[in-house]
## 1
Amino acid sequence: MPEIVTYLGNKSYSSWSLRGWLACKLTGLPFREEVHPMDTPEWKPWISARSPSGKVPYVTLDGAPLWESLAIGEQLAELNPGQFWPEKAAARAHARSIAAEMHAGFGELRKAMWMNLRRSFPGKGRTAGALADIARIEALWEGTRQRYAGDGPFLFGARFGFADAMYAPVVARFHTWQPALTARSRAYVDAVWNHPFMAQWVADAKAEPWTLAKYENPDP
Ligand SMILES: N[C@@H](CCC(=O)N[C@@H](CS)C(=O)NCC(=O)O)C(=O)O
């Protein structure tokens, strides 16, 4: 069995860490995780001694370094392909494209509505840029689900896959900041939020001892 180790920032705040961890979960294999609080004097030395980019998520697979969440997902998918990507080529092409769009984009949303799994800031963070990103995400979710989800609750149907994992932190942000969403988007948000992987991550986040002030004030 391959040895997988994942290095993570705070589960409460580190949205990229969540993507890497979900990729590890999708393998269906046991893995070890090491969590370290960000924005502390020890953070940079800790992560820089491990991850070539000095960022999380960082994963080792039988000792081989893996960084950048999309690359982590693609590599770990080789261990359990059917769980990560849809079976049909057209759906897989679509899944890869929306995963890449998430990897590269939505900076305004990420800046205005950061992840904080222990807090609720309804009505805040609604900058023009964040609202434009949300409109694109809702259109993308709806277009994908209309075409590929059938009766299933996730982007490509019944199975929570890697495209869902890439958007899971958006779901978490929507949970905290509660922007206005269509009923269909809300149903998708609920499906991801209630998935057992997500529930486990949120429970771990709530049990963390660390609070980072910069993520606690919705009116910076
Ligand atoms: N494009 C990278 C983004 C990595 C990233 O920005 N990670 C943040 C996680 S919140 C980080 O490590 N921040 C702490 C730091 O830069 O010291 C990926 O997809 O993995």
## 2
Amino acid sequence: MTDDLLLDVQDLRVEFPTLRGTIHALQGVTFGLHRCETLGLAGETGCGKSVTALAILRLVSHPGRISRGKILFEGRDLLAVSEAEMRDLRGSQISMILQEPKMSLNPVIRVGAQVAETLLVHDKTLSRRAAAERAVEMLATLGIPDPRRVARRYPHELSGGMAQRVMIAMMLVTRPKLLIADEPTSALDVTIQAQILELMKALKREIRTALLLITHDLGVMAETCDRVAVMYAGSVVEQGPVRTVLKRPQHPYTQGLLKTIPNDVAPDQPLFSIRGQVPSLLQPSIGCAFAPRCERAMPECAAKVPPQYGLEADHHVACFLHAPGA
Ligand SMILES: Nc1ncnc2c1ncn2[C@@H]1O[C@H](COP(=O)(O)OP(=O)(O)O)[C@@H](O)[C@H]1O
Ligand SMILES: [Mg+2]
């Protein structure tokens, strides 16, 4: 991959010790995100999308831990920086939008003040008045009608769609280089979803931020993303330009995932059924995690984990079918 990589995640591993044993939630996640690009992170529930997002921000909850790997942000390893530096990066350079906006807004502070506060935390030279003014401007940019009035409201006085807009305003007001959005619209109804996604696309162009968009909705992905990374059982099995991956998927899992989607799939319906079951994460995979369900599995697939092989034009597939000379 080229050196305009903003985020370069290599062999990321996360474990959660539990009473039943250690859950190997991430088992070597590798992907890259270029500047100003939108990368979709896809895969069924439990495959490790949210844990990947949290790990990038170093917010994996205790006793969970990042056991291995590198997270290079502009070439700097986030796993090696101090907690103080990390706190500084969060919010100013890397922001995250959560699924339930009202959970992340403080219920007892007016929303305008919350957006302003984000600015003040990261820019000590700014006056309160100027921050309040920038907050109102940001609300206006997000298409909020009468932003001055909305700024004076409390979170519970807003609709879900409006609260999500405020949340996005809060995350973008510092102009971060990377915005992570974990299923940002799945708690909203379909028409609002479409509006919010349009808005994020437009804003992304204006602010020139890169976006890591987590969604299980491949329709949203096709509409919004430049590239996609497909995850299965704690690792990335395929990544590449969105059109290539959706039209000519090369990993048997991605192929299964796409084949089983009806054309008019409802946004939160289960997307597919591939024979067999998702593996338990209590044992790290010795071979390809998908091998037990794969119709094209070969003996070596059960014996070792396939690396990502580079195909044409930034398309990578972790499958021995694509090993040179296979
Ligand atoms: N705090 C936790 N403690 C134990 N296991 C966890 C914790 N958070 C996530 N996991 C496990 O890690 C795996 C990946 O979870 P997650 O990233 O939330 O999946 P996704 O977002 O793709 O649906 C799941 O098997 C989940 O049970
Ligand atoms: Mg999740």
